[in-house]
Amino acid sequence: MAEKFYVDHLAVIGVGLIGGSLIRALRRTDCVDRVSGYGRTRASLESALSLGVIDEAANDVAAAVRDADIVVVASRWQRMRTYSPRCVTR
Question: Do the beta carbons of residue 62 and residue 42 sit within 8 Å?
């Protein structure tokens, strides 16, 4: 039997419909412990926090991905070029 997929700390860039749905599915199946999120607007982050989708909201991408075990970019592909350099910490 295969081991169950589990993530201690998941970071999601883009906490809207796609990112939020992924997080909720992982939470429903007890596959994730802590989720940090980054969104383009404060309103989307506040909504994700109030709905219990994310545990912590970050003001920038680097803060969201710090110490994450897995990073998911749930955003339009045109934005990925902007986010990826900010995910790398020195």
Answer: no
